[in-house]
Design goal:
One of its GO terms (molecular function) is phosphorelay response regulator activity. It is built from eight helices and twelve strands. The chain is α/β, with parallel strands linked by helices. It has a five-stranded parallel β-sheet with strand order 2-1-3-4-5, with helices on both faces. A four-stranded antiparallel β-sheet has the order 6-7-8-9, with helices on one face. It has a three-stranded antiparallel β-sheet with strand order 10-12-11.
Amino acid sequence: MTILVIEDDRKTGDYLKKGLIESGYQVDLVRNGTDGLHQALANPYELIVLDVMLPGIDGWQIMSALRAKRDLPVIFLTARDQVSDRIHGLELGADDYLVKPFSFTELVLRIRTLLRRGVMRESDTFQVADLHVDVLRRKVTRKGIDIVLTNKEFALLHLFCKHQGEALSRTLIASEVWDMNFDSDTNVVDVAVKRLRAKIDNPFELKLIHTVRSIGYSFGEDS
């Protein structure tokens, strides 16, 4: 399996390449964002280890451009340690986020987990009644009408599509979409669902998002 490492710090990049090769992977190392994005789009890598602060274009820009073209595991490995940075990276579509200084053993374990998960890829598209969701292109249409969603709204819709007909608790939704636990008295999930409803349900006769009393929400034609 071939991994692309995009890391501008020479010492860290060399350390990662040497360690990953010793762990059994083939590794390409690129030291700037422009070449990194070109390499990522031009070659069939199984996984990318990506820094944020890079010369040329930064990791955020690479992640956005990559998700518009390809679907493969990406781990951010960066000194950006704020919670807001982690949330931003995950919202852009990263599969994991590891802060420097890091444990190399932990990095390898996370890589192995993502590669195992990648063997069973999720569906690329969902069709629910007249709603069509293209996960790779992050494109949503209903009755042929394009619907523009924020990253968080798209993640919420994607979760609903993967669990059609199931009653999802607010706690589960918060954990899956925001990757963190929220206090029970917060209304962040309800607000997000309201915004998503306004775009994919309110303009149409058939409603797909349903409130499940005392639990949370379900999704589908017959929920």
